[in-house]
Amino acid sequence: MKKNLLNLNTNNKEKYLLKDGEFFIERASQQDFLFEKNFLLESGVKANYLLIVDKEIDEPMSRDWILNDHSQLKSYRLFLKGRNSHKLAFRHNINEAARIDSRSLVLAINEEKLSLESIYNFSGYSSFGRVKVDALLAGKAELKFHSDINVLPSAQKSDTRVDMTLKLENDGVRGEIIPGLNIAANDVKAGHSAGTFRLKTEDLFYLRSRGLNKVEIRDLFVSYLSKSFVADIKDNKLKEELIQLIYNSL
Amino acid sequence: MSRDIQTHDSMWNQYNQSDYMKNSRQGLDEELIRFISSEKGEPEWALEKRLESFRIYQAKAMPTWGPNLKDLNLEAITYYARASEQSAETWDDVPADIKSTFERLGIPKAEQEVLAGVGAQYESTVIYHSLKKQYKKLGVIFEDLDLALQKYPELVKPYFMKLMPPDLHKFAALHGAVWSGGTFLYIPKGVKLKEPLQAYFRMNAKGMGQFEHTLIIIEAGAEAHYIEGCSAPSYGVDSLHAGGVEIYVKDEARFRYSSVESWSKDTYNLNTKRAVVEKNAHMEWVGGNFGSCITMLYPCSILVGEGATADHLGLAFANKGQIQDTGAKVIHAAKNTSSSIIMKSISKNGGKALYRGLVEIKAGASNAAVSVKCDALLLDDKSVSDTLPVMKINNHTAEIAHEATAGKINAEDLFYLQSRGLKEDEAAAMIVNGFIEPITKELPLEYSVEMNRMVELEMEGSVG
User: Which among B197, B306, B322, B346 is positioned nearest to B259, based on CA atoms?
Assistant: First the structure.
């Protein structure tokens, strides 16, 4: 098999300490993929993380994160396949002045059935979080995505936000999104948004007038979502491979 | 302190002697349900409905979500008490002590000046009901529901407890078993009421339960505005309000339901309100929740007709020891329907305000449009604000936008107002009044002023 970044078998420890500057990648299709795993970012560490769910997972799966003071995590989660009867859970504890930027992209265009839960507990003073979720559902796909931001009393001066966008391609798909916001500190900035994305009639007319059919329009949208998903990744080779992986999965 | 603020205080601090409670008892069993039904002279079907609800109530567990209700002792509640022998049509016929309570609340004065009709309930039964003659002539019915059940069975039976079936949840079942009093409002086809109607519900005695049922039918092309107010004095003993509201808004009709709930802070307010909205009809909910120790209230609009629309506007103020678990539910079940939800909450002194919402787009509901906006203001570091919006989308043409923010009073706004000569607490109260303005502006002036004053009272001592 051609060696590339996405095939790197990085680590199979249940508890993992990320090093400064590390980009940790894991794929559900890896042979030694663990269903439960804990990650720790020590104080001041800056790291990146990428999870690709490209295989059906029929067991409870969880990832628990601790971000110690002043650490920074850029987290990417890409969901391409799945009919999971169990929830895939992602829990994060974010301490003082720690920062998390989390992006999730769900592309479910056949008969995928995904149940995802993402919890962000901000406990540190001046902690920061941006959570973005984009999902495209087509065919008979079903998605339930619960993303909670919990701002604890100790998280004064924190700045947090979650944004969730859902695009449904056709009837027969089912989407359920819950962007929860639970705030127990008063001197904070906190917000969330959720909504559906739908092409305006004029935009659709324009694209059809340029000769694009329904599938090509969808691919155009997937292209936009993929590029937006990888936009902050600095490694160009990884970016290309990710975009290629997304296209191949379609 | 102004007269209006004294009126507000009296809602919670003043109560009448309640000798009639000697004839009542705590706890609930089938015997009591049969007694309630027989005292009201109900038809057999109504008793059967009560007994069926009681069976469901016994079988259903307490809710496993939301605020913890373990301290609510349902055995210690008095489920039925009659304070007056009959409903009066003039205030002169209302017993003096009960009349004085409603005078303190300003109800008879408001009736003369701005209302089309008034209903007043004291404990379990309606003690006063009246409707202006010009509306009676148009065929409008505004009655005590106990009475309407007997006078208009053909209008009541097809709708009663259909939108709020007893198996909806445990407290809907409890309501179905022991409901008493409430309002029946019927607006005939094409009739448009220019003045609002009001009902006021007052619990007076210690450890009381109130279970009024409001049934409203707005026929095609009709329009009306109905306002409900609620209050109870504080005893330090739990009381329970589990009212039920069912509203049917027919084709092309428009209806606004406003409520200002000011239960005392030892009341559990577990209310159910639902509306079904037909073709091109419009339903509007405007609500303010101030009192109670725990409120669980999520008005629901079910849009079943093409082009139906709904607006939900709500304000919750959670002060010390209070949990205001409120929200809105909108179910889009037809094409080209739209809804808008605007919720504001203020938490203070350790109070907890939650927005719990559901927007559901059914598979056949093409081109649904939904806008949800929730804003929370936290006035100190002990208070809590939670937002839990659930969106179930089963149609790809739906356009939904939800936006929520939370934070404290902006220091720059406070500084600016103080630089214009306002004291810190006056400035804070002004900012809070601005924050709730989208809700209060939808109420008639008198109620809007009252809601602002209630907020000002709740705000006392917030700053500094």
Answer: B197
